[in-house]
Specification:
The chain has 71 residues and is mainly beta. The protein is built from no helices and 7 strands. It starts with a strand and ends with a strand.
Length: 71
């Protein structure tokens, strides 16, 4: 998680093996949420990049071997 600016928040929840998450926030008042895995979830990759202000990004990954890119 890389944050530059004011009042940014990031929440990352990872369950299971092989989870990878990257969050970059440049600006103010951005919120990012990554939720990976679960009972049988594994091998997920998520990338969220927020540039500007007042952004909201969320990704939920279940199952196996999912990729998500949010920009």
């Amino acid at each position: 998680v890389i944050q530059s600016g004011n009042n940014n928040s990031s929440f990352v929840i990872q369950r299971g093996g092989g989870q990878d998450a990257f969050v970059q926030q440049i600006g103010d008042r951005n919120t990012a949420e990554v939720d990976q895995g679960g009972a049988l979830g594994s091998a997920h990759t998520a990338s969220i990049v927020q540039k500007g202000s007042d952004g909201l990004a969320e990704t939920v990954q279940r199952g196996v071997n999912n990729d998500a890119v949010v920009r």
